[in-house]
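seq as requested:
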Amino acid sequence: MLPGRGLSLGRAMVGCGTQPTLTIQSKNLKKYLLNTKLIPTESPMLKNLQMNSTDRLIINVMEAVDLEEVRILHNDDSTLEWLTDPTHVSPLMQEQWYQEISLSSTSQRYIARLKKDQTFVGVFRIDRMDLRNSSAIVGADVVPELRRQGMATEMFKYFLDYLFKGCGLNRLGLETLAINTGAIKMYKQLGFKQEGQLRKAIFRKNMFQELILMGLLREEWSDIQ
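struct tokens:
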């Protein structure tokens, strides 16, 4: 699995608006969606958020200049152990993946950097974007040296607001290994609920592990704000 291509197990979307700092090829995407009649002309899916930052982070669509930092994060053993496919990625594989995801209408990657010095923090993934059913799969990876500092939570809160309020989605889902207790605790604090379990679905740490399915609805997110 190429960087950020699958689900992070403890871990993407198209831009919902035409705001340059948040969406990639958003005008082309809007034209495509309208031409294929997947959404009405005035769909709430095309609304923008007004900011692309949090208290500590700047959020932007992944660009070519970010690729090597993203690849290094992906290839870190402490990241790979939580991914569905723990395959190391070469620079060529990364470039091929980037070309594919840049054209995707169902997946997107966003980069988070520290406001104070532009230090690379991590990647937020949106996958399986389904406008007809108003849903997507989400997740995030943070560089090892900045973990356990609330960065992932800050990224998630920003994107939950973006996807539920800015894009009007109804449901967000994710999948994580049952042994990734730290991530599960964070997801529950954000309001995600366990919806199912795939028994012995992922081979990791020399044994088959359970895969936990979690979901969050727009009204549930609104209730905890």
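The helical segments are 26-35, 67-75, 77-80, 91-102, 151-166, 181-190, 218-223.
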